[in-house]
Input
Amino acid sequence: MALPGGTTPPLAAWADWAATAQSASATSYERVLLADGVLALQAGARTVEGRHLRTWICKHDPTWLGQAAADAAVMRLSEVDPIHRASAVTPAALTLPLALAHGRHHGPVTGAALMHAILVGQELAIRLALALGGASQLMHGVWPSYVVAPLAAAATVGRLRGLTPQRMQHALALALASAARQPGRPLGHRTGRWMLFAQAIRAGAWCALAAEEGLEGDVTLLSEAWLRSMAPATPQAAWLSLGWDAPLEVTQTSIKPHCSAKQGLSAIHGLQQMLAQHDFSPQDVTQVEVGVPQAYAAMLDREPGWASRLASMVSAPWQLALTALAPADLDLVERDLSTPDAALKAWSARVTVYHDASLETYYPAQWPARLRVHAGGRVHEQLVLDSPGDPSFDWGEAQLLDKAARMLQHPPDRARVQQALRLPIDPQALSDFYTHQET
Output
């Protein structure tokens, strides 16, 4: 089908690429990203919240789709899964659980086929989020990963099931029609946020299965008009027609070195550097000022860090108090906040978060922080643009295994991460991974 003037609709080009794209063997960083997703799944599954959520979802949907949706939610709630900064999309949680669950139910594919399915789902998700306005959507209460989840899921499952470009086009069209707008901000100790995420993943996978059976969607849906109807932020329609020979955006995905919202990691890294390089102790600190872009200034100081597990990973005052007084606790995916530590509460009260307009020029390609630390009668200042795990850092297998050692307490979980590093290149590792499938 062609548009007036003979041009090809964007969705046709996206579907053709998703159904047919081939690449060379997986790069070292792509393998690290895959294994980091497995790490996040293992970590999230060990939390009380993760266990309860997985049990509840699988009780109501015991199929492989329910298992995949549950695992996607568990991975995402861990807050240690990878993230692409410019789009604010967490691509591993959108794709990897589906690929693994599909393999458990239908039999494993080759390592190359596994990587192709994961990468096409991730790239389409990132490009769609960028077209919708990227990370700027966060200021409007939009959760980009939630909005693009059906598309990523449909592309991943469609590729695993060998959909033709025509059938893939209908799978993607149905997934676009399934995209939600805003989930609101369900907070508290039992937030429904992760259930909504699981539902979006399941919907996308179902769209691929429906297209495989011949159901059809509106293949003209991916357009500037659709973007405007979905995006409270300013759409960037050029992403719809960007050629598929351009560098893949998924290669700019960041890995989180600690259990934290990505928006807080530059501040954490800055304080870590200051404590290591300057002659002052955490007890000397009387005040910390954290300047960040407007997009996440309010988010980082919305709730006290002891309000909930999620709040403890988002609150910059709480995260910086952990950095200063209990750095090992930055790596705890499970957090007991029933009796918050008085010293941490007191130290976090010294931290203020403000909008630093000078940082807007860096955002959203980078998520910076400017720290001013008052200690010992002096003011120490540092601008941090990137943190460990960002593409500008040398982050490889050794760093990933160190992260696994810090976050995963059970040896079988750490061994599974090591095994995941070899999934795209070692058929035996792939076979063994599915043989020992329980997390």
